[in-house]
Design brief:
Shape: globular
Number of domains: 2
CATH architecture of the largest domain: Alpha-Beta Complex
Helix content: 40-55%
Oligomer: single chain
Structural class: alpha/beta
CATH class of the largest domain: Alpha Beta
Amino acid sequence: MRHFLDFEKPLAELEGKIEELRHLSNGGDINIADEVARLEAKVDRLLRQTYAKLSPWQKVQLARHPDRPHGSDYIRELIAEFTPLAGDRSFGEDRAILGGIGRFRGRSVVVLAHEKGTDTETRLKHNFGMAKPEGYRKARRLMALAERFGLPLLTFVDTPGAYPGIDAEARGQAEAIARSIEACLQLTVPMIATIIGEGGSGGALALATGNRVLMMEHSVYSVISPEACASIIWRTAENAQDAAEALKLTAQDLLKLGVIDGIVPEPLGGAHRERQPAVAAAGEAIEAALRPLVALDGPSLRQQRREKFLAMGSRGL
């Protein structure tokens, strides 16, 4: 069953009518096929109108859509011969971050991806994509593996943020995130990060400090969630829409600000409507970004990454 967001209610009504008509037989004065074609054209027109003027808050809702492709979907569609690797060799396995080795378009790579889960059982299993310290230490371990064998690192980011629980803080959450960012910056292999849904705070940045940072068209990337920002600034989460506007968290805003390097277009209506074409578009963008990077030597890759992040903030808002 398709999930419709609040601003998609007119679309939900039209698509509901189309489904009803498809179960009817032609009769009377109405030609069912003609009426379905007319409504489908109306849906297409309304989709284009709606998605041409999305607000930042609507983009946040799309980034969180339960039917969007998740990290595991990108791995399954883009990475051949994927072999998962688990554990941080210190505390345990964190299923909020998937990791392993495989082949991307025939090239051996190391892959890291946040995974939120798709239903109650899997969301609990993956802790809604919110990693604990052991997740970031596992990420560092796999970054070291990529470095040792000279393999490009691909990451797929989709998290509301790092897990804020007492147990995570007790095990050094901030230190684990900082070390993961440091490991990204020190790599001498190509690293491409793709924001596929939510890119929340340090929990996202820990896997996104790459030579190239790409964002899906309707993903978001910010230092704090709109709700948390509103709770701090306005003392109520009800101002989340205002916070989303102020945070400049959309892919379009961040490209203008030089925070990201490219936007991956999504099918009309968002990645949740046509999952495979959306994932395939991400694959094309990653390949295009990776091609010039593999020709560079290690010191050049590290220097390019360093200069990229040092330059952030030089552009005005």
